[in-house]
Amino acid sequence: MPSLADICADEGEMLAVSVSRFIAAAHMTSDAACWDAAYNCAETILGADEGPLFVARIAGLMRALRAERSAAWHFLPAPCCRLTGDEQALVELLALARGWPSSEVDRVAARIAGVEATPRLVAAARAAAVAIERAVCRLGAHQADFAPLTAALH
Fold first, then answer.
1. Bridge partners for 82 per DSSP
2. Which pTM does this prediction carry?
3. Cβ contacts of 1 within 8 Å, gap of 6 or more
């Protein structure tokens, strides 16, 4: 399995993967503590004002995945430094949504979902990409704030 650092372009994408893992665990277990962990993770890195907004955008992305994908979603625990194939595809989608033409985003979203058209997933990926860009800007201004997440990866 490839490492998070090798696949993610920056700390914003790493944070998105970690938050998506907490959200996926919350959906799988129905445990509210997973949601709290997602918020705590984002708030520790981005602050109480931006953290919940980041979680909301990633939650929207994960909901779109659940709505438009029929196959199981394979993910690892939040602090893991490796990525599953599904998580790699998600990072690829987010990277494309951060600046590539719509046709590429549409193609990768359809491949991830295993269907021909994924309007909800594409829209959610674009919204998550905006949140990631905001996070990267904030992390650039406060790079030391990201240390708790990178230190927790194994």
1. 3
2. 0.88
3. 82, 83, 84
